[in-house]
Amino acid sequence: MASPSRRTWTLALALVISLVSGGAHADSRTEFLIGRLSSDDFRVRTNAALALGATNDDAAVQPLCGVLDDASEVVRQASAVALKRLLKPASVACLKGHLASEKNDSVKLQLSRAIEAIEASGGATTTDDPAGGDAPKTNSGAKYYISIAPITNNSSRPQADVDRIVNAAVRAKLETLGQYQLAPAKESADAARAVMQKRKLKGFYITLALDKLDYGQDGLKVTVKVVVFNYPNKAMQAVFDKWKQMPGVRPGDKSAEETLIAATAAAAMDTFAQNAGSF
Question: What CATH number does domain 144-278 carry, 3.40.50.10610, 1.10.3490.10, 3.90.180.10, 2.70.150.10?
């Protein structure tokens, strides 16, 4: 049976769309979500924090930094994850300050990953590709326009490793399938609409979360959780898990971990592709 913390995060993913979808302007939506951070219900605060991470709004940084002091460790984790997704350099100082004082190991892990992701984003390549390589190739035969969210990493592997492995696997799989045009990272909603209208593409925004690597008697099990939204409005279309297992793998086998993580991410894209026409 799932732990209370895991059930809470599952609930948050399932409900967060009620806060981020709709036709409201970004500033009014951000204001609404900021107000929800003051709710007496930690689940509402968690959902609001996660939703603020999808706004790409500078105004979300200070309120999210504020709830890094929340009494609930779940809310603090959600705030750190949201700040990582925003990738705003202005949040680094508050993240580092809270990392120094945070006592909960799970929250500290998410704070560290947020800092790592933001600093890597600020000092790396200027390319718009989410995988950190060349810009997305133009696929003249595409039917679908795909934006990939920053990868959520709940494993023990460094965030940079997971970003590299998962993004490369996702990109390779979608390019192989042939009907998919990858969108550049940090694309505005207006820019996305313009491309999709001109090329008559259907858009999807996909989030992937790598679970803790599960070592047991049967070897290594890797699970990737996927949430599919339409794009650029980001109304939720589907939620599913994909997992793969490799027998005989012992803890610490980094090569096997990378192989299985990549295979699971690619399989998740296969499942998405099999159902894209019905979303």
Answer: 3.40.50.10610
pTM, two decimal places:
0.56
Unique residue bearing structure tokens 């560290």: 112
**Regarding beta strands 214-216 and 180-182, do their DSSP bridges make them parallel or antiparallel, or are they unpaired?**
unpaired
Q: Indicate the burial class of 1 (C-beta count within 10 angstroms; 0-12, 13-18, 19 or more).
A: exposed
Would you identify the CATH topology of the domain 4-123? Leucine-rich Repeat Variant (1.25.10)
Q: Do residues 147 and 207 lie in contact, with contact meaning Cβ atoms separated by under 8 Å?
A: no
Structure tokens at 118: 């933001």
Q: What percent of the chain has pLDDT over 90?
A: 49
**Among residues 195, 199, 248, which one has the least CA distance to residue 219?**
248
Q: What is the pLDDT of residues 185-233, one digit of tens each?
A: 878 889 999 999 999 999 999 999 999 999 998 899 999 999 999 999 9
